[in-house]
Design a protein that fits this description.
This protein is an all-alpha fold. It is globular, with a radius of gyration of 15 Å. InterPro entries: ECF_trnsprt_substrate-spec. Keywords: Membrane, Transmembrane, Transmembrane helix.
Length: 171
Protein backbone atom coordinates (compact mmCIF):
# COMPACT_ATOMS: atom_id res chain seq x y z
CA UNK A 1 0.00 0.00 0.00
CA UNK A 2 1.35 3.38 -0.98
CA UNK A 3 1.18 6.63 0.95
CA UNK A 4 -1.04 8.29 -1.67
CA UNK A 5 -3.65 5.52 -1.42
CA UNK A 6 -3.60 5.61 2.40
CA UNK A 7 -4.05 9.39 2.41
CA UNK A 8 -6.87 9.29 -0.16
CA UNK A 9 -8.61 6.46 1.69
CA UNK A 10 -8.38 8.42 4.94
CA UNK A 11 -9.72 11.53 3.22
CA UNK A 12 -12.68 9.60 1.80
CA UNK A 13 -13.45 8.08 5.21
CA UNK A 14 -13.37 11.59 6.72
CA UNK A 15 -15.76 12.74 3.97
CA UNK A 16 -17.97 9.75 4.82
CA UNK A 17 -18.13 11.05 8.38
CA UNK A 18 -19.42 14.38 7.09
CA UNK A 19 -21.95 12.58 4.90
CA UNK A 20 -22.96 10.40 7.86
CA UNK A 21 -24.17 13.57 9.56
CA UNK A 22 -26.51 14.34 6.64
CA UNK A 23 -29.21 11.83 7.51
CA UNK A 24 -32.40 11.21 5.59
CA UNK A 25 -34.04 8.51 7.69
CA UNK A 26 -32.50 6.69 10.66
CA UNK A 27 -29.13 5.45 9.45
CA UNK A 28 -29.77 6.26 5.78
CA UNK A 29 -27.42 9.12 4.94
CA UNK A 30 -24.98 10.54 2.41
CA UNK A 31 -22.08 8.46 3.75
CA UNK A 32 -21.61 6.33 0.63
CA UNK A 33 -20.76 9.06 -1.90
CA UNK A 34 -17.06 8.99 -0.89
CA UNK A 35 -17.12 5.19 -1.09
CA UNK A 36 -18.38 5.29 -4.67
CA UNK A 37 -15.82 7.96 -5.55
CA UNK A 38 -13.07 5.96 -3.86
CA UNK A 39 -14.19 2.86 -5.78
CA UNK A 40 -13.80 4.78 -9.04
CA UNK A 41 -10.43 6.29 -8.16
CA UNK A 42 -8.74 3.65 -6.04
CA UNK A 43 -10.41 0.38 -6.99
CA UNK A 44 -12.71 -2.24 -5.52
CA UNK A 45 -10.81 -3.07 -2.32
CA UNK A 46 -10.36 0.54 -1.25
CA UNK A 47 -13.91 1.41 -2.28
CA UNK A 48 -15.25 -1.53 -0.27
CA UNK A 49 -13.31 -0.47 2.82
CA UNK A 50 -14.43 3.16 2.50
CA UNK A 51 -18.08 2.13 1.98
CA UNK A 52 -17.98 -0.21 4.95
CA UNK A 53 -16.41 2.40 7.23
CA UNK A 54 -18.82 5.06 5.98
CA UNK A 55 -21.81 2.99 7.05
CA UNK A 56 -20.18 2.13 10.37
CA UNK A 57 -19.79 5.86 11.07
CA UNK A 58 -23.44 6.51 10.17
CA UNK A 59 -24.60 3.63 12.37
CA UNK A 60 -22.46 4.88 15.28
CA UNK A 61 -23.80 8.42 14.93
CA UNK A 62 -27.37 7.10 14.71
CA UNK A 63 -27.07 4.84 17.76
CA UNK A 64 -27.38 1.61 15.77
CA UNK A 65 -31.13 1.83 15.10
CA UNK A 66 -32.61 -1.58 14.26
CA UNK A 67 -29.70 -3.36 16.08
CA UNK A 68 -25.99 -3.99 15.73
CA UNK A 69 -26.40 -7.21 13.66
CA UNK A 70 -28.49 -5.33 11.08
CA UNK A 71 -25.70 -2.79 10.64
CA UNK A 72 -23.05 -5.51 10.29
CA UNK A 73 -25.08 -6.95 7.40
CA UNK A 74 -25.40 -3.45 5.89
CA UNK A 75 -21.62 -2.95 6.20
CA UNK A 76 -21.06 -6.20 4.30
CA UNK A 77 -23.57 -5.10 1.66
CA UNK A 78 -21.90 -1.70 1.34
CA UNK A 79 -18.49 -3.34 0.86
CA UNK A 80 -19.91 -5.65 -1.81
CA UNK A 81 -21.73 -2.76 -3.49
CA UNK A 82 -18.58 -0.64 -3.77
CA UNK A 83 -16.49 -3.57 -5.03
CA UNK A 84 -19.04 -4.54 -7.69
CA UNK A 85 -19.53 -0.90 -8.71
CA UNK A 86 -15.77 -0.51 -9.21
CA UNK A 87 -15.26 -3.83 -10.99
CA UNK A 88 -18.13 -3.23 -13.41
CA UNK A 89 -16.98 0.32 -14.13
CA UNK A 90 -13.39 -0.80 -14.80
CA UNK A 91 -14.46 -3.72 -16.99
CA UNK A 92 -16.89 -1.70 -19.14
CA UNK A 93 -14.77 1.48 -19.30
CA UNK A 94 -11.76 -0.50 -20.57
CA UNK A 95 -9.18 2.11 -19.61
CA UNK A 96 -11.15 5.21 -20.62
CA UNK A 97 -10.85 8.19 -18.27
CA UNK A 98 -14.65 8.51 -18.13
CA UNK A 99 -17.24 6.24 -19.72
CA UNK A 100 -20.92 7.18 -19.57
CA UNK A 101 -21.90 3.62 -20.48
CA UNK A 102 -19.75 2.20 -17.67
CA UNK A 103 -21.00 4.77 -15.14
CA UNK A 104 -24.61 4.03 -16.07
CA UNK A 105 -24.27 0.25 -15.80
CA UNK A 106 -22.20 0.40 -12.60
CA UNK A 107 -24.60 2.98 -11.16
CA UNK A 108 -27.69 0.88 -11.87
CA UNK A 109 -26.03 -2.14 -10.26
CA UNK A 110 -24.99 0.04 -7.30
CA UNK A 111 -28.59 1.15 -6.74
CA UNK A 112 -29.87 -2.43 -7.03
CA UNK A 113 -27.24 -3.65 -4.56
CA UNK A 114 -27.84 -0.79 -2.14
CA UNK A 115 -31.64 -0.97 -2.34
CA UNK A 116 -33.42 -4.26 -3.12
CA UNK A 117 -30.44 -6.58 -2.53
CA UNK A 118 -29.69 -4.94 0.81
CA UNK A 119 -33.29 -5.37 1.90
CA UNK A 120 -33.30 -9.02 0.80
CA UNK A 121 -30.14 -9.61 2.85
CA UNK A 122 -31.82 -7.96 5.84
CA UNK A 123 -35.16 -9.76 5.53
CA UNK A 124 -34.46 -12.39 8.23
CA UNK A 125 -33.47 -9.66 10.71
CA UNK A 126 -35.94 -6.90 9.79
CA UNK A 127 -39.13 -8.68 8.72
CA UNK A 128 -40.06 -9.83 12.26
CA UNK A 129 -39.42 -6.32 13.60
CA UNK A 130 -40.89 -3.95 11.00
CA UNK A 131 -43.02 -6.25 8.85
CA UNK A 132 -43.48 -6.30 5.12
CA UNK A 133 -44.90 -2.75 5.04
CA UNK A 134 -41.82 -1.43 6.82
CA UNK A 135 -39.53 -3.27 4.42
CA UNK A 136 -41.40 -1.88 1.42
CA UNK A 137 -41.28 1.63 2.91
CA UNK A 138 -37.47 1.46 3.05
CA UNK A 139 -37.06 0.52 -0.63
CA UNK A 140 -37.68 3.91 -2.31
CA UNK A 141 -35.67 5.76 0.35
CA UNK A 142 -32.67 3.41 0.10
CA UNK A 143 -32.77 3.37 -3.70
CA UNK A 144 -33.25 7.13 -3.97
CA UNK A 145 -30.41 8.01 -1.63
CA UNK A 146 -28.17 5.42 -3.32
CA UNK A 147 -28.95 7.08 -6.65
CA UNK A 148 -28.09 10.53 -5.29
CA UNK A 149 -24.84 9.26 -3.71
CA UNK A 150 -23.80 7.61 -6.99
CA UNK A 151 -24.73 10.62 -9.12
CA UNK A 152 -22.76 12.96 -6.82
CA UNK A 153 -19.73 10.63 -6.86
CA UNK A 154 -19.85 10.38 -10.66
CA UNK A 155 -20.16 14.15 -11.06
CA UNK A 156 -17.18 14.75 -8.80
CA UNK A 157 -15.21 12.05 -10.63
CA UNK A 158 -16.06 13.60 -14.01
CA UNK A 159 -14.91 17.03 -12.79
CA UNK A 160 -11.61 15.80 -11.34
CA UNK A 161 -8.50 16.65 -13.34
CA UNK A 162 -7.11 13.75 -15.38
CA UNK A 163 -3.88 13.72 -13.37
CA UNK A 164 -5.89 12.71 -10.29
CA UNK A 165 -7.82 10.05 -12.22
CA UNK A 166 -4.50 8.51 -13.26
CA UNK A 167 -4.15 7.22 -9.67
CA UNK A 168 -6.76 4.64 -10.75
CA UNK A 169 -4.53 3.21 -13.46
CA UNK A 170 -1.56 2.67 -11.17
CA UNK A 171 -3.43 0.60 -8.58
Amino acid sequence: MKTKEIVLTSLFIALSFIGANIKVMGSIAFDSMPGFLGALLLGPAYGAFIGMMGHLLTALLSGFPLSFPVHIVIMIDMAATMAIFSLVYRKVAEGEEFSLKAITLAGVLGVIMNGPVSLLMLTPLLLPVIGIAGMIAYLPVLSGIATLNIVLACLVYKLLPNRIKKVRKKI
